[in-house]
Design a protein that fits this description.
By secondary structure, the chain is mainly alpha-helical. The chain is built from 1 helix and no strands.
């Protein structure tokens, strides 16, 4: 991975999730999940795949 040390290469982190639209979706989903949990209708179950 010599390109990582090349003087013309800048390595940055991935931040495509960092948009206003994505933040709104995250908030809406979180609120929706909390409301569903309060109604005893939890979502997004993890199941034992064994």
């Amino acid at each position: 991975m010599a390109y990582l040390r090349h003087r013309k290469v800048i390595v940055t982190h991935h931040n495509a999730h960092n948009t206003l639209a994505a933040s709104r979706r995250i908030i809406e989903t979180t609120v929706s999940n909390i409301e569903a949990f309060g109604r005893a209708e939890p979502r997004n179950f993890l199941t034992d795949g064994s």
